Amino acid sequence: MASNNFIDYVKLICRSGKGGAGSHHFFRAKGLPNGGPDGGDGGRGGHIILEGNSQLWTLLHLQYQKHVFAKDGEGGGENLRSGAQGEDIVLQVPLGTVARDPDGTQILEITEHGQRLILVPGGRGGWGNDHFKNSINQAPQYAQPGEPAIEAIIILELKLLADVGLVGFPNAGKSTLLSVVSAAKPKIADYAFTTLVPNLGVVAYRDYKSFVMADIPGIIEGAAEGKGLGTRFLRHIERNSMLLFMISCDSPDINAEYDVLIGELEQFNPDLLDKKRLLAITKSDMIDEELEAEIRATLPAEVPAIFISSLTNKNIMPLKDMIWKALEETRRDAAPVKRQGLGEEEGDGEWPA
Fold first, then answer.
1. Is 33 marked as binding a ligand?
2. How distant is the alpha carbon of residue 21 from its chain centre?
3. How far apart are the C-alpha atoms of 143 and 76, rounded to whole Å?
4. What residue stretch is flagged as signal peptide (predicted)?
5. Is residue 69 marked as binding?
């Protein structure tokens, strides 16, 4: 995916439709001069709706659509005729899209294909005078106006949904690994910040299973404060089920690099540290077994580690096994506890309707 086509942030000016006014009308016919109220209700104004689409990967199609205005509802008519509803506007967005207001408050989030949520609701139509008749007031002289439109500035942010997020310094071998284990073709070169936008790849596993891997642009010390590519792409890590830390074996201090990466993630969002982690020592084809054993003895004890080489395919399959096992544990931990029956610890009370 070309870097200029990866759009993960757009700002829209949205305005829903206002509700149509209720009708203030009285029925008139030959021989029936006092037929009573028959004013119909106004139509609802159009909603602005977000719909998840798994075939979209960026917000590129919304980049130049700065104004999104829904149509107003029509007013009610005589003979209890209701006004037509304003046409809704449905914006297709990729999964993982979050809508916020300018203050940063989250409004909604789209996570499933076909999921529809109202971003800006249209105004309700007003009641016609027929609604207000009673035994005392048999000829109401008023009807409700429709509710006004809602205008708001909406910020849409994309947070990529992936099973595994690759985290590491620039030139740690993240893009090379993704190109080896999937059909993705990220840009690869021998200089820092080759990857300027996230890349996704589907990794084939045993028995026709698969998982999605995301290559996140390189993180440097101070990224959470805006250095390097800053926090622009750190938010994509939030939607990953687990994190694969990648550090080159020729690093002067592997533990120090690992601590810096952990620190940047914690500074950006402490909840990221709750995700399962694996550590891959890359470019291990450059070292012999003796040096590998010496490095292994110094690695952080709290995270499972493996030495890999994307160039020679060393330990690529064992790495997939470790990732799949971690994903299975993550899914199992996230699964809801099933009720066993009434009167038991998880089943006290009545069954939900």
1. no
2. 37
3. 10
4. none
5. no
